[in-house]
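During the reporting period the student researcher (J.K.) took over the structure-prediction task from the postdoctoral fellow and processed the backlog of single-chain submissions. One of the processed entries is reproduced below for the supervisory committee.
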Amino acid sequence: MSLRDNQEQHALKLVEIITGKKHSIEQLKENVEITKEFIDIYDLKLANKLSSEGNLYYACQTGFPFFNIYVVSKYEEDFEEELANARKGYLWAYVYNYDNPELSEFGTVCVDNELRRIY
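J.K. obtained the following structure tokens:
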């Protein structure tokens, strides 16, 4: 399997851990496209940056002042840690800061079972 295939399978596991629901690969790919469309609306350079870095963005949630883009690392050695964090309600994300775009960054965010950021 390719890195992209592994990332997609890993994203499905993360979503299932957080939501308690299994999703198909088709649902995941649809979410990836929807997420890309949202990213493009806000900042085309951001979509290019996230894609070129090799990360897989698989879902997003927007709520002023943050736009949370959930990502799977391009480093498979990070997958076990990402799963452990998901079991505690945390996902790895790129957080775009509407108020101060220069403060946008990757980080871990706490989410509820609908993938909405809690903090």
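The committee noted the following: The chain has a mean pLDDT of 91.
J.K. will present the remaining backlog at the next meeting.
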